[in-house]
Amino acid sequence: MSLLPLVPELLRQLFREPATNRFPAKYLPPSVTGFNRDVEAGRAAVVPPVPTPPRFRGKIAFDRDSCIGCTLCVKVCPAHAIEFLADVKKVRVWVDQCIFCSQCTNICPKDSLSMTGEFLLAGEDRYADDLIVE
Ligand code: SF4
Ligand code: SF4
Predict the structure, then answer these.
(1) What ranges do the domains of the chain cover?
(2) 112, 62 contact by CB (below 8 A)
């Protein structure tokens, strides 16, 4: 097999900016918890991530006021990440269960659900406030 057809692409890649960066630190810290402590104390800085592209599927956002409680999002969610709150006829999204498929945002008739560019969602507490959207 000839490699000749690949040459133009190889040359293009040589001069292209990398699509990712060294995040969150330029060099791998010896200890992540030590690195976090250094960041808090101002002794180290986090290298910001590259901007997310348009239509990136990150953390769900919910516009509670426009939600009509139709439960379509609950029915299509393959991860059972959306709970219907019958007493108030609104929904709650458990972000730790979400697989970012965007089916709920596509089906919502009121555009009450949307995907944001936020993706730094790792944590130790799945019930933390920032992992519950309601
Ligand atoms: S993005 Fe997918 S997994 Fe996440 S809440 Fe919506 S339907 Fe469920
Ligand atoms: S599909 Fe939209 S309007 Fe219906 S319950 Fe879900 S968020 Fe509310």
Answers:
(1) 1-50, 52-134
(2) yes
Among 122, 88, 84, 85, CA closest to 104? 84
36 contacts 49 by C-beta, under 8 angstroms: no
Q: 63: CA distance to ligand 2 center in Å?
A: 9
Nearest atom (ligand 2) to Cα of 89 = 5
Domain 52-134 adopts which CATH fold?
Alpha-Beta Plaits (3.30.70)
Cα–Cα distance measured from residue 68 to residue 39, given in angstroms and rounded to the nearest whole number:
43
| CA 133–ligand 2 middle distance (angstroms) | 13
User: pTM above 0.90?
Assistant: no
17-54 residue pLDDT tens: 888 888 889 888 888 889 989 999 999 999 998 889 89
